[in-house]
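Table S2 (text version). Query chain:
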Amino acid sequence: MTRIKARPVRGSWLSVAARIHRPSASSLARQGGGRARTAGGAMTVVMSTGLLLYVRRALLRELRQARKVAGAAQSVVLRPLPPRVAGLEVAAARLSAECGATVGGDLYEVIATEHGVRIVMGDVRGHGLTALATVAAVLGSFREAVHDEPELAGVLRRLDRSLARHLRERARAEHPSVGSVPDTPVAEEFVTLLLLEIGHDGEVRGLNCGHPWPYLLEPGRLAALSGDDPLPPLGPFPLPADLPPTDCGRLAPGQALFLYTDGAEDARDGRGRFFPLPTLLGEAVRARPPHPQALLRNVFTGLLRHTGGRLRDDVALLVVRNDRLSRAAAAEPPDRDACGSTAWARPLPTNPRPTQRS
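Corresponding structure-token output:
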């Protein structure tokens, strides 16, 4: 029998298994490089995310600060009105078409002077800071002119000169290389404006430059203020030589004037229908006196409901109510013949429709 001589195995079977499964030096190097690359990529992602979060927080802080500054500028230019001015109850508010916006081109002011209570309501073409600068120019001139000028025509001419000067200066600043101001886009800017004066006896006179006439409100009655054809808006065209104010009659105790910018009438719903402003105002005063704050609340609520919260233009509202009698006398219905309201207001049509504007 032939014997087969086996070769002895060095070491135990464990050492053999260890040698079989022991990774080579190159394998370890590859594994270590992969872990390093993974760790480096993770660190890059963490650092990038942290940097983005820091930049985002910084931008949000700057945005909040810019909104605060814009809101402060707006409150200085378009300052809150007092609740009462020379026996007239006053309420005003505005609503911006841009979400989060605090500045716009609507303007209003009510000031008591020795000539009576003088009111301005206007709408500057455009939005943002450029419109706010124009608002500041017009209101600054108005606040001075109403005390200096005995006639409304003088006030309007002061506003026109101030606006023209402001537009010239803006054109030179924005287009310094253009020698002629009419060739710049600024020359196309304009402001629609309504000036009213309520005398101590309630007599109302007005000058209108392309702005909607207000509504007359009293318990159970709504009428549109009837006036002459409006003048062109301020800016593109010079004022005529003769500026006779429109005699609007007398604002009797208990009656109110509702002033607004055209963003209220021109607001549309998803089907293109105009906001029924006269209908809403008529319902608001059908059975109760026209309270200014309640009117503003009702109109703004109706506007947001009608448009689904998506306004296309800024809206400003102003309500002035004659509250110069005592409470007992003011509770009595006014004598229409005595106050002469039928001489300066016309009844609304059955189905009023706002003027369509492109």
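Notes on Table S2: DSSP finds nine helices and twelve strands in the chain. Residues 326-358 have pLDDT under 50 and may be disordered.
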